Amino acid sequence: MHNRNRIKLVAASLLVSLGLTGCGSKSSDTSGPVVAAYNGGQIHEGEFRKQFNLQYMLVKPDATEEEAEGEKKNFLENYILEQKLVLAQAKESGVKVDANQVNGPASQYKSQIIQYIYSGDANQFNQQMKKLGLTEKDLNPLIETFMYLEQFQQEKLKSVSVSEEEAKQYYNEHRDAYSSATVYHILTDKVADALIAKERVAKGEDFSKVAQEMSIDPSAKQNGGKMEGPLTQYVAPFRDAAATLEIGKLSEPVQTQYGYHIIKVEKRGEPEAFDKVKESIRQQLQAEKSEKTWRGYLEEMRKKANIQITLPTQK
To answer: How does strand 308-309 pair with strand 41-44?
Structure first.
């Protein structure tokens, strides 16, 4: 079975666009004590256990007991928010999902889990389903919920737009990032290691050699930390540093979600004209605006929900 770090994304097409973490059900299991209450209802242990197994344990079979325990409260809060309250609003708003159209996406979801989580081993998948007390019939309500919420989200966000003036302003503020460049970098887990790498290069060692020895970027073994292309392909802190760093100079450690980078720009071209990049800028800003709008809506719903979690404390 693959390492759990590969569990990024099973049903990316179904989950990522919504940012969903829970799942829905046609009927609620009212067995066991109440583990959460909110304005409009309660969640019993039976329902929570089934949904947690379906959405978390099924796609993270290597999770330790401690890891799973640490996810339960957050999962339950999001399950209530999204699959109870938002789902109810979606249905009240008139969103319709044809139950006959659910089987295909549900089958795709299952195939993705088997491929990416269970390394293509359907037997392991089936064994885990059995262990968790799940059946394939449990997948359809989950996917149906996603379909409701995806349509509802699209409806909520259809008025979000980006003007050419907004795109132009963004371009002017990030103009250098629309250059193409040849960049070398060394990636480390710790800032102290990044500083050691920088010192070695500053004292005359070959940058590529140090990258091959110290960088945790797997590609550094082959390319010596060399990367080429538009700076917009990189995450923002890296992009901004590479866009402004003096040619041939070593950067201070630049922190991203991947670790700490020492960067050297070998060459950097002129930025592309606005007309060539304005559509990609518009799409980027549209996505950012949409995400902000959706998260704002969810936070507003969360405040009104008065969610009270009463999960038993794990000893």
So the answer is: unpaired
Amino acid in position 239: R
Closest among 70, 42, 44 to 307, alpha carbons compared: 42
Q: Kindly state the tokens that stand for 39.
A: 């304005």
Question: Which of helix, strand or coil describes residue 239?
Answer: helix
| Number of domains composing the chain | 2
Q: Is the residue at 274 inside a domain?
A: no
Pairing state between β 41-44 and 34-38: antiparallel
130-189 residue pLDDT tens: 999 999 999 999 999 999 999 999 999 999 999 999 999 999 999 988 999 999 999 999
- Dist CA 152 CA 53 (whole Å): 26
R_g of the chain computed on alpha carbons: 24
Contact 62, 1 (CB under 8 A): yes
Determine which helix (DSSP H) or strand (DSSP E) holds 18, and give its type and residue range. Answer: none
Tokens of 137: 């019939």
Which two three-digit tokens encode residue 86? 């938002």
Backbone angles phi, psi at 175, to 5 degrees: -55, -45
Collapsing DSSP to helix, strand or coil, 59 comes out as coil
Q: Are residues 72 and 38 in the same domain?
A: yes
The single-letter code of the amino acid at 92 is: E
Q: Which among 127, 149, 150, 130 is positioned nearest to 138, based on CA atoms? A: 130
Residues 49 and 137 in one domain: yes
The DSSP call for residue 137 is G
Residues 261 and 299 in one domain: no
* Predicted confidence band of residue 99 (pLDDT cuts 50, 70, 90): confident
For 196, residues 6+ apart whose C-beta sits below 8 A from its C-beta are 214
Q: What is the pLDDT of residues 289-311, one digit of tens each?
A: 999 999 999 999 999 999 999 98
* CATH of residue 231: 3.10.50.40
